[in-house]
Design goal:
alpha+beta, 26% strand, 117 residues, 6-stranded mixed sheet
């Protein structure tokens, strides 16, 4: 490797943190509504809370129209890897490194914005 290439590689080190974080999150687990997993809904709402267990991302992915009764029934929630969820809905990929406390709602086919409610 030339010295110029090595300097370029080292100068981009700040970008590697996010890549490493994405890789780690992809291997962790998330809670996913059965509407997304079984019924084919795209993720309409996602939020990230503090992880309570090892290998948990803190992410929850929902269709967006689940009511409290639906969500309180554990049969309606699945646990799966973030990687598998991203395979179902690629739009969430660019948001998975968002910090704990993030709440996002889909506003367009390829875009989410912060949920203000």
């Amino acid at each position: 490797m030339s010295e110029d290439k090595l300097k370029e590689f080292i100068s981009n080190e700040s970008q590697y943190h996010e890549m490493k974080e994405r890789k780690d999150i992809l291997g962790q687990f998330a809670y996913v509504s059965r509407k997304v997993l079984d019924e084919g809904w795209k993720v309409g709402y996602m939020c990230r809370e503090k992880a309570e267990r090892e290998n948990e991302s803190g992410w929850q992915f929902m269709g967006g129209n689940e009511d409290d009764a639906y969500l309180s029934d554990f049969h309606n929630i699945a646990i799966m890897s973030v990687h598998s969820l991203v395979q179902l809905d690629r739009t969430v990929w660019k948001y998975i490194t968002a910090p704990v406390g993030t709440r996002l709602i889909r506003v367009a086919s390829e875009e989410f914005e912060t949920d203000k409610n």
